[in-house]
Amino acid sequence: TASQRRHLEDDVGYFIGPYCSEQGSEVNFGVFSDEFCTIFADDDYNGLSHKEFYYKVTGEALPYGEDSLVGMECLSCKEREEVPDNQNQDGNDNNNDAQDEDEVIELCEQLYANAGKCESGMNPNSYYFSPNENGCNYMEGIQIMRSDGTVVVKSGSASKTAAVFIGIFAVAFVLLGAYVYYLKTKLDRAKVDLSSQ
Question: What are the UniProt keywords, alphabetically (predicted)?
């Protein structure tokens, strides 16, 4: 009954956690019925999605349920100019990474250092003596659609060598099957001939 169902819902723990949208271009919050955030807490009985269920229970929209947690706007990596100590309250707001000459903020340096790279097109006589090509295969496998940020996996190209081997094995399998059938019928005929003598 409805009262028993309501009592069961009260005993269930719900969890809010991030998940990737269907297109893969956004990270949203969702309501889940397990602590690992793998099973959406959809209310199939009333036909409500996990977001609608959250609204029904709390009376408020789920934060970041529709808007992405991760923005698509760019972040400037240029280091800000130094502020004289008399204008700077604690003397260290803008000087955390000012000792280097590259004028790139530390966050961007760390992001670049940890990012997968495909520097195969770099000039060998440039600053990079040994280009990092560890990310080339991965980057060739994806294509980013710039219009909405949706990531689309490229369809794998068919290998001609694999197609040739598949064809050879298929023909060999058919020929082997025909030869086995031929030998079986020949053996059956030999048994029939022996039994008649």
Answer: Membrane, Transmembrane, Transmembrane helix
Confidence of residue 2 (pLDDT cuts 50, 70, 90): very low
The two structure tokens encoding residue 149:
């940020």
The label of the residue with tokens 């340096």 reads: 109
Does residue 62 carry a pLDDT above 70?
yes
DSSP labels for 116-127?
Answer: ----TTS-TTSS
Report the C-alpha gap between 57 and 36 in whole angstroms: 21
Which residues is 32 bridged to in the sheet? 15, 40
- Cα–Cα distance between 110 and 37 in angstroms, integer? 29
Nearest alpha-carbon partner for 133 in 118, 121, 115: 118
User: What stretches of 52-192 adopt beta strand conformation (E)?
Assistant: 142-144, 151-153
Match 């060598």 to its residue by tokens: 161
Instruction: Provide φ and ψ at 186, rounded to 5°.
Output: -65, -40
List, in sequence order, every residue forming a beta bridge with 151; answer none if it has no partner. 144
Asked if pLDDT for residue 122 goes beyond 80, the answer is no
Helix (H) or strand (E) holding 111: helix 106-114
User: How many Cβ atoms sit within 10 Å of the Cβ of residue 32?
Assistant: 20
Full-model pTM: 0.41
